[in-house]
Amino acid sequence: MKLRTLEMKMQQVAGIPDPDPTKEQYQTPATVAARLLFDAYLAGDIDGASVCDLGSGTGILAIGAALLGAEQVTGYETEQRLIEVAEKNAASLSVDCTFIEADITEVSGSFDTVLMNPPFGAQKVHADRPFIDTALRIAPVVYGIFNAGTLRFLTPYIEGRAEISGVVSASFPIPRMFSFHRRDLLEIPVEIVCMRRI
Length: 198
Known about the structure:
CATH superfamily: Vaccinia Virus protein VP39
Helix content: 25-40%
Number of helices: 6
Mean pLDDT: 91
Organism: Methanocalculus chunghsingensis
GO molecular function: nucleic acid binding; S-adenosylmethionine-dependent methyltransferase activity
InterPro entries: DNA_methylase_N6_adenine_CS (IPR002052), rRNA_MeTrfase/Polyamine_Synth (IPR051720), SAM-dependent_MTases_sf (IPR029063), Small_mtfrase_dom (IPR007848)
Family: Belongs to the methyltransferase superfamily. PrmA family.
Shape: globular
Strand order of the largest sheet: 3-2-1-4-5-7-6
CATH topology: Rossmann fold
Keywords: Methyltransferase, Transferase
């Protein structure tokens, strides 16, 4: 599947109903999701693999992994209402994904690859750390979306556990969604980071 084809399929994933700003519930843009997924696919980390989507939200990363040939896809999300949206999205794109309600820190098992778009930490400092910790505990390869400039914090945080093997810059468009938003569209510079356990 070509990157553009994947991106068009990702655009069919329904967004988050009544998002909670305190939890930084922003829908992963189709362009960013497709870029992360395509890079992971080209690296051999999706096709035929067991894939975990941590904080799966509406299921966009899980669904994309299934479309790219993952053997097994499991998404973990803390809110049942979002799991229901993810299940509908997966059904609408005719893919088989399992979505489980669980706290991120309590996720167990073993996977080949973790995909995630953790909170950037705008509302709660270090909100991404539980995601990083769990991801590196359950899989040898992790792809995540982080604020641009995070590498200077991320690199020492994962030292001794993992190494950064790839970084791709992208733009994360956030439309006006909440009363505190001042612009119709805000483009947040982000980095898609691949971490591999050592």
